Amino acid sequence: MTYDGDVYEPGTLTGGSDSNQQFILPRYRDLREIDERINVLKVDFDKKSKEYQDYTNKINQYNLMEK
Known about the structure:
Blueprint: E1 7-9, E2 12-14, H1 24-66
Antiparallel strand pairs: 1-2
C-alpha cells in the first residue's frame, strides 16, 4: 500500500486519486470565461479606436479649413 492509499500488486494499481485533477474543469471554465471577456473587450476597443481615429480626422480636416 502506498502513502496515498493506493494498493499495488504486480500488474495492478487501484484506488487513490489525483488531487490535482479535481480543479481542472472549474479552472478551464474560468479561463474560457476570461477569454470570452477579453474578446468582447477587444471588439469594444477596436470600435472605440476607430471612433477616435474618425474624430481625429474630422478635427484635422476642420483645422485645415480654418487656415
